[in-house]
Amino acid sequence: MKMRRQGGWSFVIVLIIIVSVMGSYSLVKANSDSKIEYLNVKIEQGDTLWGLSTKYKENHTYTTDGFVKWVESTNGVQADSLQPGDTVKIPVERQIIQVASK
């Protein structure tokens, strides 16, 4: 009987730790997402999503491949079908937009 109670407390302690870790992760994730803003970029002749990723690499935390996939998914476009005059939304950090607008 005593062994069973100890196992029960261990379960509760592990459950509390898991809930605490998940709560902390959610809080950090929410804060990091809140720093992301979006910028509409008009595609010019010769622009590519890879080129935009490089051009704005100081403004986002994605890898080039991740940036391209994010832009394709968010905008419902394919990288090889973009045309001059098209507009795509790209992710940038909020503080970059504030600096750019001053």
TrEMBL record:
Pfam family, one: LysM
Transport as UniProt keyword: no
Bilayer-spanning residue ranges: 7-28
LysM domain boundaries: 39-90
Keywords on record: Membrane, Transmembrane, Transmembrane helix
Highest taxon, organism lineage: Bacteria
Protein's name according to its UniProt entry: LysM peptidoglycan-binding domain-containing protein
Organism: Pseudalkalibacillus berkeleyi
UniProt lineage: Bacteria, Bacillati, Bacillota, Bacilli, Bacillales
